[in-house]
Design brief:
By secondary structure, this protein is of the alpha+beta class. It has a domain at about 55-174: CBS-domain (Roll). The chain has six helices and six strands. The strands form two sheets. Strands 1-2-3-4 form a four-stranded mixed beta sheet. Strand 5 (about 145-150) and strand 6 form a beta hairpin.
Length: about 170
Amino acid sequence: MICPRCLHDNIPGVDTCARCQFDLATLDLPAGQDRIEQTLLKTLDELRDLLKPRQPTCVGEEEPLWEAIRLMIADQIGAVLVVNRAGHLVGILTERDLLTKVVGVNDLYAELSVCDFMTKSPESVRLDDTLATVIRMMDLGGYRHLPIVQDHKPIGMISVRDVIRHINWLCQSG
């Protein structure tokens, strides 16, 4: 069984992930009640084949928060990816972060750094991950955005809206 947290391929039937110790015993793959569920559960297609993820909007970890907010507004997006000087993903700053960590909490936020408010070490996916993996990660983690990385560098972003758009396409094409 592939661990939804770290994506380690475990021996079938194990109760915990050998890499991250995540509890796998409670996970039960449903059979799928309709064509869409069955397709999502059985597809081996990778993200690169299913979706055209948008290019990520990135900011440096030392950028002022006002710059990240400006980019989110200008690009009409709900999250920016935070990278270090080497271009490696170190965090994500989402609308939820702004609402829970900034608004009404810190009046002097605009001049503070993105790294003061970002979610550090976000979970991410790769282009060779399946749509079912993405949906499971979003569901278990409560995420609306997942960075797509290659060699620790962000190459895309997948959102709940992208997933819904693809499911809608599945409905229309069947």
